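Subgroup meeting minutes
Present: P.N., E.W., G.H.
Scribe: E.W.

1. P.N. recapped why we're keeping a running log of single-chain structure predictions: easier to compare across weeks, and new members can see raw inputs and outputs side by side.
2. G.H. added today's entry (75 aa).
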Amino acid sequence: MSDFVICINNGSNPASLIVGKVYRRLPDTEAESHDMLRIIDEDRSEPSGYLYPSSVFVPIELPEAAERALRTNTD
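Output recorded in log:
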């Protein structure tokens, strides 16, 4: 799966997620085995991210320059 996803539904987390926004996905095989994704959300106070249902995101591929910019912005 891509390192980046776009939010398609924030119904259960409107304060933490913005529909249409690109978020960085962190690797977490345990979470993924439960259909969850570890995401760096709007809060950003937790560097290890938060868990969200994978159904509220769609994986996307970004140009290399965009990936670099987003990685730098969230590191």
